[in-house]
Specification:
The chain is of the alpha/beta class. It has 6 helices and 7 strands.
């Protein structure tokens, strides 16, 4: 579902920038493992095939992989050789790891041409403040007080606004941003099960596990994730910088 959108925006970005000789791409929330390079491979091949079709020289491409400092970047780098074997590039393709929170500035001003992120932006920068008792759940559920939902909503709004602000400073004019974000299709009932049922099951499982071992007082932590409202579960956001 997301591939046609990614390909379309990659082509439009590269064409609108008049086939530059250098392109810098950033994947935010890259995680680790072979899947890390799936999107980068698609972007690089799209650019190179477009150059062949238009009889243009292929650019040098700088692929920047971002995640939190705790991510296993060593595991990521082990797949670089395999990645370079698969791509259809006649020129240099550079890979770098960029550790840090994507809710902060990570790149120089006006340096990014294409930004991508898949199923990462719904993770908040922190657990919302002032959460009330939540019946031993790790997330908001149908039984949670409405103030807890509002706390998650407010934290998401702050974080997402920050993300867009810092990326707008880092991106060149006519750059493109493609984000895939978890969403929900319920508006009237923010605590409907489609956005939090899996966390309810996790809470119940953890609680039962702890009770099997100890009958002492249980302290439940909270998940820091939020599913924004949409009429579809998969939300694609295109952010074009002029």
């Amino acid at each position: 579902m997301t591939k046609p959108v990614l390909v379309k925006n990659t082509k439009e970005m590269f064409t609108n920038l008049d086939f530059p000789g250098y392109v810098k791409i950033a994947d935010f929330g890259c995680s680790s493992g072979q899947n890390t390079f799936l999107v980068m491979s698609e972007i690089v091949d799209t650019i190179n095939l477009l150059c062949q079709e238009r009889n243009q020289k292929q650019p040098e491409i700088d692929c920047c992989l971002n995640d939190l400092p705790g991510n296993d970047f060593n595991a990521v780098f082990k797949f670089i050789a395999l990645f370079k074997k698969k791509i259809t590039s006649e020129r240099s393709c550079f890979i770098s790891g960029v550790p840090g929170s994507f809710y902060s500035r990570l790149f120089p001003l006006k340096s990014l041409h294409l930004v991508h992120s898949v199923y990462s932006i719904h993770f908040l920068s922190k657990v919302p403040d002032r959460l009330e008792k939540n019946n031993m759940n790790v997330y908001i559920t149908a039984s949670s007080p409405l103030c807890n939902y509002n706390a998650y909503l407010n934290q998401f709004q702050r974080d997402f606004s920050t993300f867009l602000k810092v990326r707008s400073e880092e991106m060149v004019s006519n750059g493109r941003m493609v984000l895939t974000i978890m969403g929900r299709n319920t508006i009237d009932d923010p605590l409907y099960r489609d956005c939090c049922h899996c966390w309810t099951l996790l809470s119940n499982s953890l609680r039962d596990l702890v009770l099997e071992v100890s009958r002492k007082k249980i302290h439940i932590g909270y998940m820091f994730t939020y599913a924004m409202i949409s009429k579809i579960y998969l939300v694609m956001i295109f952010y074009r910088v002029f």
